[in-house]
Specification:
Blueprint: E1 5-19, H1 32-36, H2 42-52, E2 57-62, E3 65-66, E4 74-75, E5 87-93, H3 95-104, H4 106-109, E6 113-126, H5 142-147
């Protein structure tokens, strides 16, 4: 049964890092400089670093209910956002690249719950078919074409 597309898989990994949305990285500098330069949220620093290091994907996911590590169970109501609610930063790339990222940016990830998961990356590409060969789901019976009335 011919198909128009081909699926190719390869091993890849996912790292999930749990934190709160309000966490920030360590301020650089001291005194007045530290007060005047606000650090971006930690999850944004991690995603920016992932982009610079060439990872395949980096995304932040807000959660609605749960806990991380030994913290208490948190709830996010629709009326007011809970700044203590967990946030998950998801990084996707080859395992070796993810390990290197975690070693390089250990100061950002220290004391966080960090989970690695093995995955597969599927690449969907056009499958070469002969010009006179149509996929089964698009095959038109010759009698149908001959018996149609012109429009």
């Amino acid at each position: 049964m011919p198909h128009r597309h081909h699926v190719k898989s390869r091993e890849i990994g996912q790292v999930r890092i749990y934190m709160t949305p309000g966490e920030r990285g360590k301020s650089s500098g001291n005194g007045l400089k530290r007060l005047l330069t606000a650090n971006p949220p930690l999850y944004k620093e991690i995603i920016k670093a992932a982009r610079e290091d060439g990872l395949l994907n980096a995304t932040a996911h807000h959660t609605h209910y749960g806990f991380s590590g030994s913290g208490k169970v948190q709830d996010d109501t629709m009326e007011i956002s809970n700044p203590a609610m967990n946030l998950c930063v998801e990084l996707i790339g080859p395992r070796a690249q993810l390990e290197q990222f975690c070693r390089k940016h250990g100061t950002l990830l220290r004391d966080k719950v960090v989970i690695y998961k093995h995955m597969e990356h599927w690449e969907i590409s056009a499958h070469s078919l002969h010009a006179d060969e149509a996929p089964i789901d698009e095959y038109i019976e010759p009698e149908t074409v001959l018996n149609e009335e012109p429009k």
